[in-house]
Amino acid sequence: MWLLSLAVLLLLYVGSQINSLVFLLAGILAPLPVLIVGYGRGPRGALLLALAAALAVFSLKPGWETVWANLGFGSLLLLGVILSVIQHRGIPPPRAIFFAVAALSVAALLILLGQAVLTGVSPMVVLAQRSSEIMAMARQVLGAAAGEGQPLVPGVPQESLEAWVRRLLPGLVITNTGLVAWLNVVLARQFAFVMGWRKPEPPLYQWTAPEWLIFVALGSGFLLLIPVGAVRFASLNLLMVLALLYFCQGVAVVAAWFQRLALPRLMRLVGYPLLFLNPVFFLIITLGLMDLWLDFRRLHQPRDA
Fold first, then answer.
1. Residues 6+ apart with CB under 8 A from 297
2. Does domain 1-201 match CATH 1.10.1760?
3. 87-101 confidence digits (pLDDT tens)
4. d(Cα 105, Cα 75) in Å, to the nearest integer?
5. pTM over 0.90
């Protein structure tokens, strides 16, 4: 299993350098082999797998350029290791995801500041470079869909889009990391259960966001009314993170309905990816918010009810 997981990681990496679809797949599922090994062999096996994959990538072209160019892939491997270590200590998956995302966010900030110090430029310049790299990766993934020389978003100039990405980059990084961590934890739990490595755990569809977060969301919404650019963008970043939490709660509601209706696995495999599409994505966020008051899953009612 360890060697097979290493082979999958290397195939994902090599394929991501050739094909844009594999690049997208690697950006989503790279932590999964590390998590699976963590379930089967423990955190030490997960750490050794991540180190072996990182050394294999570095050996292709040793040098700092390789390190900087593959920070994203390395952060995904680190995400798998952190999740493995935290879950091995018995911490529930929602908290494990929260701690892992927080740790990676702090690491990303330290890397950004370190890169600014090493290159002798301000952090804002490095932030601008990162936003340009994100736009380039988005164009690489979209490929022919956007067209050469065409804007990624119709009607929005590329300069304006890059400016928005630069200001919303913290929220984008946190939400993307959270979605990737959540998806990989769900898949790894299912794999470990099928393989008989773990006893059945409490289903994730019973998870709910803390009720007090709604006041943070309302406060962030009111901050958008303040005519100060920095305050508005800070509140937008916070709203993006909160939207991710309520999206996960909305998916939990849908998963509970799937379970209650006993839908076949094939229908679930088709249904879950549809939740990430626009505009269904925003409907699921609304469903997660409404669950606070309507309690669709009956989690807060007495057992006799």
1. 205, 206, 208, 252, 253, 256, 291
2. yes
3. 888 888 888 899 999
4. 10
5. no
